[in-house]
Amino acid sequence: MAMSRKKALEYAERLLATPRSRVRVTLRQGSQGVTLLHQRRAITKCYLNRSGIRAATLMARVLGISVPPLGASAHAEVSTGVLWRAISISCLDFRKRESYVLVERLLEEAELMRQTSSEGV
After folding, report:
1. By CB neighbour count within 10 A (0-12 exposed, 13-18 middle, 19+ buried), where does 38 fall?
2. Which of these, 97, 74, 84, lies nearest to 26 by C-alpha position?
3. Considering only CA atoms, which of 45, 37, 33, 40 is closest in space to residue 5?
4. In a 10 Å sphere around its CB, with 0-12 CB exposed, 13-18 middle and 19+ buried, how is residue 83 labelled?
5. Is 62 within 8 Å of 74 (Cβ atoms)?
6. Dihedral (C-alpha) 50, 105, 78, 63: value to the nearest 10 degrees?
7. Closest by Cα among 22, 51, 20, 17 to 34
8. C-alpha to C-alpha distance for 56 and 21, rounded to whole angstroms
9. Are 2 and 8 in contact (CB under 8 A)?
10. What is the number of alpha carbons within 13 Å of residue 73 lying toward its C-beta?
């Protein structure tokens, strides 16, 4: 089933509109790229090109997981704040140097948010 990145990001926007401390997401690697899902619906997708592979790797890092092998999935439970950062990274163009400055900031913030969340449980 083909998925429009635009429609996926529209769904992500609706999902993020209500702040939550726990959102279960799935990162799946298929032949077309790496897709982030919530309740089996696509939130964002990173295509198999140089920029997309970099984005997928960093997006997984923000979520605190690794990119799964082809055909497999990995699960994470994160806050909407961490999820927003993961989605933001998936939209960056890593052919531009400025993207790396933004990524460092987003990674730091996500790490702090995940640590705070796990301490509060």
Report:
1. middle
2. 74
3. 45
4. buried
5. no
6. 30
7. 51
8. 23
9. no
10. 12
DSSP 79: -
DSSP β-bridge partners for residue 74: 27
Q: φ and ψ at 107, to 5 degrees?
A: -65, -45
Summarised one tens digit per residue, pLDDT across range 35-81 is: 999 999 999 999 999 999 999 999 999 999 999 999 999 999 999 99
- Predicted TM-score (pTM) of the model is 0.89
Q: How far apart are CA 43 and CA 51, in angstroms?
A: 18
13: how many CB neighbours lie within 10 A of its CB?
12
Amino acid at the residue 101: V
Q: Which amino acid is at 33?
A: G
Strand partners, 41: 38
